[in-house]
UniProtKB/TrEMBL annotation:
GO terms for molecular function: glycolipid transfer activity; lipopolysaccharide binding. GO terms for biological process: lipopolysaccharide transport. The lineage of its organism: unclassified sequences, metagenomes, ecological metagenomes. NCBIfam families: outer_YhbN_LptA. This is Organic solvent tolerance-like N-terminal domain-containing protein. It comes from marine sediment metagenome.
Length: 243
């Protein structure tokens, strides 16, 4: 075991990439700041004590003690942060606010891609809040589950009662501006187009023919009768008769 004791030291280590980071975060170096560090290569354990802070891109973990456990291939198996309180934050998707969490004890398991918040757990996610004695944050699915069962942290039992959640309503999509429908203007003149010259001529000829027909039609003949005084009496209207 190697014991490194440094006051407010900044340790830059090429640790295996932490899988909870964004793709862009994984390409960034891991930065760890602590008062001291202990490394056990045989056991595959590295521990940082005294206001330990780990950052990698947008990922940030704080705790009084942060301990990393590795397998025989030097791959990260789990990480545990403890303190009053241990804290975690990271941007999960570009453009979103970071997910934040805190608890007395945080346990991250690489093969599950989950963070367990044990004792006074609290998560903030896109405006929603979750509090409970035990909270599981599923990083891959961006999901949170919580329960109120009592937990034991460093030999002490913690029971905060029921869980509490604050769920924000979904944001309403902005309605597109209503397009103004242009007023349709109808050209009245176009709907009553003037008749062409041939049509006008045909109409005039028709009127003339009608007038001619009326003028040449003989007046209707009515029967006549004569009185004893030789007066010519017509039974129909008119004044053209002989006395």
């Amino acid at each position: 075991m190697r014991l490194l004791t440094k006051f407010s030291a900044i340790v830059l280590l090429t640790l295996p990439a932490i899988s909870w980071a964004l793709p862009s975060d994984r390409e960034k170096p891991i930065n760890i700041e602590a008062d001291n560090a202990q490394m056990d290569d045989q056991q595959g354990v590295t521990q940082y004590k005294g206001r330990a802070i780990l950052t990698q891109g947008t990922l940030k973990i704080e705790g009084d003690i942060i301990t990393f456990y590795y397998d025989e291939n030097k791959q990260l198996e789990k990480a545990i942060a403890t303190g009053k309180l241990a804290k975690y934050q990271q941007i999960q998707k570009p453009g979103e606010s970071p997910v934040k969490a805190k608890a007395l004890r945080m346990e991250y398991y690489a093969n599950r891609d989950k963070i367990y918040l044990i004792g006074e757990g609290h998560v903030w996610q896109n405006g929603d809040e979750f509090t409970g004695n035990r909270i599981v944050y599923d990083i891959a699915n961006n999901a949170v589950s919580a329960n109120s069962a009592p937990v034991n942290v460093d030999g002490e039992t913690h029971d905060r009662g029921r869980i509490h959640m604050i769920i924000q309503p979904p944001k309403k999509a902005d309605k597109p501006a209503k397009k103004s429908t242009p007023t349709r203007v109808t050209n009245v003149a176009s709907t009553q187009a003037p008749q062409t010259a041939p049509a006008q001529k045909k109409q005039i000829d028709s009127a003339a023919t009608t007038a001619k027909t009326e003028s040449t039609t003989p007046e209707k003949q009515y029967p006549e009768a004569k009185t004893t005084s030789r007066l010519n009496m017509r039974t129909g209207p008119g004044t053209g008769y002989q006395r």
